[in-house]
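Task 17 of the worksheet. Students: predict the tertiary structure of the chain below and write it out as structure tokens. Keep your answer in the requested format; marks are given for formatting as well as content.
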Amino acid sequence: MPINHIQTRLRDGHSVFGCILQQFRSAEIPRLLAAAGFDFVFIDCEHGGFDLETIQDVVRVSRLAGITPLVRVSELSYSLAARALDVGAQGIILPRVEEPELLREALSWMKFPPAGKRGFGLGPPQLDYRAQSFAETIADANANTLTVVQFESVKALERAEELLAVPGVDVGLIGPSDLSISLGVPGEFEHSRLVEAISSFIKVCNRRGVAPGIQVRNATLARAWVDRGMRFVGCGSELTLLFAKAQETVKELRSVN
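Model answer:
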């Protein structure tokens, strides 16, 4: 199985950058994002409208293009996580996590026994058609599956120490939109209340040996959070990047007249 390059980079103390895929059901998008230099693509099945066949196509092309495909499932469900992994996803993003015991159970779905409860269903495409024993495949899959846990509420932040202490968490990911709403400052991404809450969360992540992460809307916010210590950073979506560039181009064209 292919090495999960962002997992390796995070373990070595580096930062990684990605982009959400939310709207366009095109396997060409990850090739484009890989060519642009992104480290990972984040296939959003919580707010996006993708079915499993689309996920499979996007994941397969992502792996061929050398960009790490992650899938955010719509809810904490064994079948959603396991099927995304079975079609080749190299990591799962768990949304709206607040309960340690439920997190412990969800993490077990992402690893084969004895490390977890995942059922064996990988086929030749996911193994790149290499001949491997069950034992080799299990060891490779367990070592190269990234686990990302989202923190999106005041309750989740209050339990951050307990949640991040659950074995098997690779990344603690802040969802700033929902968190800003939970804090009573909806959409105010530089509000002191939000900044202070997230900054405290980064410290908890570092104490627990978990990479701190965030998904933001633009490069300005991304740079600010990298400076504050974030290492797993999603910036924009395929739609917002295209729209922003289209607006910039049209503005430049209109200025000719």
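Marker's comment: Residues 15 and 210 are 13 Å apart (CA to CA). The chain has a mean pLDDT of 95.
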